[in-house]
From TrEMBL:
GO terms for molecular function: enoyl-CoA hydratase activity; isomerase activity. It holds the Pfam family ECH_1. CDD domains: crotonase-like (cd06558). This is Crotonase. PROSITE patterns: ENOYL_COA_HYDRATASE.
Amino acid sequence: MPSADSSPRPPEGDWLGTKFLKFTREGPFAIVTLDRPQARNAMTPAMYFGIRYAVSRVNADADLAGLIITGSGDVFAPGGDLGGGGDDNWMQWGSALSLDVTPFDTLRKSAKPVVSAVNGLCQGGGLQIAMCSDVAVVSDRATFRVPELYRGIADTYYSQMLARIVGPVRTRDLMFTGRTLTAAEAVEWGMVARMVAHDELMDAARDVLARCCRTAPGARRVVKASLDNYLGLYDRIGMEASIEGPEAVEGFLAFSERRSPNWVHPDLRVDGRL
């Protein structure tokens, strides 16, 4: 039997299980930064789980009052790395997209406030992180997209949550066309809370988080529970069946090969990824 001293250990300090997430402390706040510039912050399963762990860690730390999530460079988070890259990979995507790994419900029920500081491109799982945070403050350079149906995924989490937030008509527009929204449009639609000048983003996020942290924690949790009930549940079984199905396999393959999936009519196929 190996001794306790020879057992594997994480690096010293705050470690979220992957080198692509940075956990820093600024007084009463924790800041988690997605930092995988070589893949434009495409999220591996370990990154998804690391954000979930960060939320739980902040909630358990008496020295921390709240959490900010942001990205590096000009990208917040583009969603999962469908190409399977990343030297921290330890799980297949079909399993990784379940709520056993992803942080969305953990964000929704977090006792301590979580603010997303959206610094740039935000789509897929990245947009879900922003919407599940208590408040999303976004740069005027940010853009938003829901491309899941182009990947063969029946994302019922999105169809449930977006319909509650922006209404069914706009949800169909977002999901069926894959259109890109500007930051101003996302604020106008009510998808995110507020837009600020890019250079003011982190200061604005800190200010918003400070205001949230000054509210009474017990009363705040009651309000959060009420809002969570309004957002409601989604068809998890149907979504997971879709993720394991042939359309998702083809969608992932088409994405990695930079082509239209085979379900697209030949006359409608385009060069590159959808």
